[in-house]
Write a structure and sequence with these properties.
heterodimer, A: 107 residues, mainly beta, six-stranded mixed beta sheet, four-stranded antiparallel beta sheet, B: 122 residues
Amino acid sequence: DIQMTQSPSSLSAFVGDRITITCRASQSISNYLNWYQQKPGKAPKVLIYLASNLERGVPSRFSGSGSGTDFTLTISSLQPEDFATYYCQQSYVVPLNFGGGTKVEIK
Amino acid sequence: EVQLLESGGGLIQPGGSLRLSCAASGFTFSSYAMSWVRQAPGKGPEWVSGISPTGDNRYYADSVEGRFTISRDNSRNTLFLEINNLRAEDTAVYYCSKERLASGRGNSFDYWGQGTLITVSS
């Protein structure tokens, strides 16, 4: 199975900050990497698919990059509605594992 | 508008069985792969099972292989998950999710239901 490791597990930031979340796969997954945002009590919502493609309706302050084993999700200017937990997920091979999550909190 | 509505969760004793349903609308159900993803309390999502558009191909996480069976009825736009021999560690919210593509690598879960809670306890 491919293991997905996210870092950091949590971070605190101010509104307006630029933040970056990292996801590492235990083996190469090309660009088959998705990013999700989840708020308490809600289902996850896809933000980025195939490493760098912005899902329709997602603000352009979200961006993704990477290939192979190392990926990043960047929020260019953190907004109040962005405080949530973020998960990466590989779509290279089953099982379609998720990372452990990064909780983004208000500083 | 795409809608996914799960049902069938509840409180069940260890060793028991359940059948989850997911009623889909707002898209051509028979054209897309579907999956079940669960989330235990305070934990991250865990992909459980997936099925191809025709139902010919089914996939399972190791943790549920042999106990869970995914199926679909394209005539009724409904996805199912049959769960047997439930364990305490199966306690979770179970989400039905639509996959972006019919099949293959590079898929993502572009729509999710609201989830149905299964609690396994005596």
